[in-house]
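Tutorial handout. Part one gives the primary structure; part two gives the three-dimensional structure as tokens.
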Amino acid sequence: MLGAPAKNPLYLSAVASAIAGLVLMFLAGCTHVAGRVLWMRTNTPIPTAEFSIGPPDSVMTIHRYKVEPDGDFSFWINPLDTDNLWVWSGRGDPALEARHVNPRQVSDHMRIELSAR
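Part two.
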């Protein structure tokens, strides 16, 4: 017998490999979303902008991501959520201002321009 699992080097190696595999699987299964949110007419950043998985005015909103004060954003989402990504200015009524992000445009170098209402 090789001893208790916690002291067995083969067991520890197998556990470390399993954990590393899970981390790699998690990272490989995520989509990096990054870029900048700007006002369309002035090309100035929107520091109050927010992204959400699901419409921002809905109980179906799964998660929210706020942009940085300079309008930049960077976050990871499940690839299945790219079809349900929304952005809005963070001001006013999200039911009127929220915009669905086209899944084909989701990338790590996005430029999103919102129009002022």
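Part three, for discussion. The two ends are 73 Å apart (CA to CA). The longest helix spans residues 9-28.
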